[in-house]
Write a structure and sequence with these properties.
246 residues, mainly alpha, 3-stranded mixed beta sheet, 9 helices, 5 strands, globular, HEXXH motif-containing protein
Length: 246
């Protein structure tokens, strides 16, 4: 999944091609195992469920609006414009998933390694290009997220293995978007943003964050998720915060 994911309740900005559960910053100490949920008081557990239920009442496009609103260059954009862009990017990602070969049938373009330490930085996955393209999957954060799905009763939305599968599918989508000029142009044209107009000449503009939304939508469609990965990431951020404060 993508790094630029909305926390609960407000969105957080992150770089593309790294799946994060929170914004970048100095390492912080966080619970390291799924057993951490058992340490929550009954009141804190119910408050977490209530907060996540309120998140679930938002539609997936709203999470896209929050992501874009938290992206540099969009701070003063009209919310209606952000909603149009979010809806267009999400639709594009779903269509890309429908037209592309199944991710399971296509070798991942990067080496995939599993490691730990993601909870210290609130990372689900991280992409590095050197010395060779590599996707690091942080199994501690993924395990905590999977357990959160059970705590919230969201298995109908996120089948077992959703976080790992969605993180890989997200990176696969970035490969399709960034290494295929025709696909990049198609997304740009779908958004319809104009960077410059000189008489009858129109220069299409790049919409920062749109590729993240398309990749999230692609991952959700490929993995058969009932809701956007952005909802689960926002819930995970709320859970980590609750665990840290309890």
């Amino acid at each position: 999944m993508s790094p630029r994911t909305p926390p609960a309740p407000a969105p957080t900005g992150t770089r593309s091609r790294a799946a994060r559960a929170g914004a970048a910053g100095p390492p912080r100490r966080h619970p390291r195992t799924t057993a951490a949920f058992t340490t929550l008081t009954a009141a804190r557990r119910e408050a977490l469920r209530a907060d996540c239920a309120r998140l679930a009442e938002l539609d997936d496009t709203e999470f896209g609006v929050r992501l874009l609103a938290g992206t540099p260059t969009h701070e003063t954009r009209d919310p209606a414009l952000l909603r149009n862009w979010a809806a267009a990017a999400t639709e594009f990602g779903r269509e890309l998933a429908a037209s592309a070969p199944p991710a399971a049938d296509v070798p991942h373009p990067a080496r995939v390694v599993e490691t730990t330490g993601g909870l210290d930085r609130l990372l689900l996955a991280r992409y590095t290009s050197r010395p060779e393209p590599t996707v690091e999957l942080f199994t501690d954060t993924i395990a905590l997220g999977e357990h959160l799905v059970d705590v919230l009763g969201w298995r109908d939305r996120y089948p077992t293995g959703s976080l790992r599968a969605a993180a890989l599918a997200h990176e696969h989508a970035h490969g399709l978007l960034h290494h295929a000029p025709r696909t990049r142009r198609a997304l740009r044209d779908r958004l319809g943003h104009t960077a410059l107009r000189l008489g009858r000449l129109r220069v299409p503009g790049h919409v920062a964050g749109a590729d993240e939304l398309a990749a999230h939508a692609y991952a959700g469609a490929v993995c058969g998720l009932g809701r956007s990965p952005l909802l689960l990431t926002a819930a995970l951020m709320g859970a980590v915060q609750a665990l840290g404060e309890d």
